[in-house]
Amino acid sequence: MKKTEKERTERAADILTLLKKRYPEPETMLDHASPWELLVATVLAAQCTDARVNTITPELFRRWPDPASLAAAAQEELEEVIRPTGFYHNKAKNLLGAARRVTEVFGGQVPQTIEELITIPGVARKTANVVLWGGFGLNQGLAVDTHVKRLSFRLGLTEHTEPVKIEKDLMQIFPRAEWGDVNHRLVWFGRDVCDARKPACDRCELAALCPRCGVKDTPEKKTSRRTGVSQKKETS
Asked: What CATH number belongs to 35-136?
């Protein structure tokens, strides 16, 4: 049954209350010391764990500490440093393009609007929102990554699967001041409890609020009367 915006807003408020209890002080897991470093780390984190990115960035920023120095780097050398993050050729190309644009167009400073950020190579709305909140404390949107996409659908907060439409839905039902931390809390909860393949519904504090949209129940086990062996229920 389709929920009204009022019903979704009420559910969102209850979900946020419980997530705040679990994660009172959420923050990004990507190590960074500046908006530029957060931008670089977020680009590298695509299809890669934050933990692995955090092992790469110290050497990257030692060699190229700012946009200007990275803009002058050789792509082959950069690729060698970031190789463990995967997709290193495209990531290196985007990072060099980002460094040049930030240096040449924005005077070496990461811009503070989503409209400007998405003109930077490798930066779409998700990365832009992460940088705005984590780097400047600005909520101009709500970052939708794979965890936020999965959880917002399972929790019945959106009926969409496209990140831009999901973002719009979430922005309507969560207070603007909470947008940045809503992302962090959903990401952490997605990693800790609501796994993509095996959500831990039996120990989920959001279970009473969750319609489990799109979640397939694990086939029940039954015991064979003849053998006494536990078997999975067959499906046609």
From this structure: 1.10.340.30
